[in-house]
Structure formats: structure tokens, C-alpha cells
Amino acid sequence: MDSASGSNDPADPPAGKSTATVTPPPPPPPSRYESQKRRDWNTFLQYLSNHRPPLTLSRCSGAHVIEFLKYLDQFGKTKVHVTGCPYYGQPSPPSPCGCQLRQAWGSLDALIGRLRAAFEENGGRPELNPFGARAVRMYLREVRESQARARGIPYEKKRKRAAAGGGGGGAAGGVKVSVEVDGGDAGGEGGGGAPGDATV
Ligand SMILES: [Zn+2]
């Protein structure tokens, strides 16, 4: 980093000392992910402020998040056939039908990932994160499965490494397996040793 100050600089200007107009590099523009995350966060805050009855972030639960996701469906662009539609389960129907457009599962999943991160970056406590709520995970799974059926998308069961899919985050959440060893009478008492035949 000291190339500018070297004395053996061949391009040394003879006259003035007005060297080094150090222009600080402009801060790197936020990545697409970051700016998308900010937009999503603002959208959600906007949604909260329009909510009736009024809703604050701190009172927001997984159920509200699901409500938000359903609200977003009206802006969706993915045709999801209802079970009564003749094209149910067809990936590319030959003609249009009256089924509604919805948000694709992948979009919702990614959105939740961004909002979940944004919540904590904005001071929310992880254990109170409504975007990480179990109900939200269940809802997303439901959407994925029903959309896969409705749109004729084959399941990808082959790959075990779903990690590359992004977003989801480990299901590290609430599952606490409490192994209960019922101690009962197996306690310390009797176990005094009593070795069969003590080798003297
Ligand atoms: Zn349809």
C-alpha cells in the first residue's frame, strides 16, 4: 500500500508538491441481497403500520407473518391450480385457466430468510423472531408441497444436501429432546459393588 510514497517514483512531478489527491474510494454499493432485504423489511414495516387493528413489531407473531405472506399472494405471478382445475398437476397447461396467481414457494422462502435476518439486525431478539416461528416453517412446507402438486413439479428427494437451497436455516429451533432417565430405585444405594466372587 505504500506505492504512492515511494521516492523512486519515476513519474515524480518536478514542480509542485501538490501530489496525492487522495480520493477515498466510494463505499461499495450494497449487494443485491442487502438492498432486497432492506426493501423487504420496509415493506413489512409498512404492512404493520397499515394493519387493522394496529400491530407493532414487538407484538408480531408467527401467525401475523403468515397473514403477511397470504397478503402478498395478490401480487404473485405464479399460477397455482386448484384441485378442481383440469390442469391441476400439469407443469405447462395448453391454455389459460381461471386459477389465481400466487407467490411461488421459493420466493416466500427466500423472503422469510431475509426478513428473519433483518429482524435481528434491527435489534430483535432471536428467540422472539416471528419469522423463525415454527408455525411459519410449517406454513412454508405446506405451501411447497401443495404448489409442487398443483404445478406438477416433481419432488426432489434425491438430494440430501438441501443446504444449497439457501434461506431455510437449520431447524435448530424448538425441538428439545429431553431424555428422561427415570431414576426410580436404580439409584446409588444397592450398587455398592457386590462383585460376584471377589478375587481375593
Ligand atoms: Zn388452473
Automatic annotation (TrEMBL):
Residues 164-173, 184-200 have a biased composition (Gly residues). Keywords: Developmental protein, DNA-binding, Nucleus, Transcription, Transcription regulation. Residues 32-159 form the ALOG domain. GO terms for biological process: mRNA transcription; response to light stimulus. GO terms for cellular component: nucleus. The keyword Transcription applies. Its main location: nucleus. GO terms for molecular function: DNA binding. It is found in: Nucleus. Residues 1-37, 154-200 are annotated as: Disordered. PROSITE patterns: ALOG. Pfam families: ALOG_dom. InterPro entries: ALOG, ALOG_dom. The keyword Transcription regulation applies. Belongs to the plant homeotic and developmental regulators ALOG protein family. This is ALOG domain-containing protein.
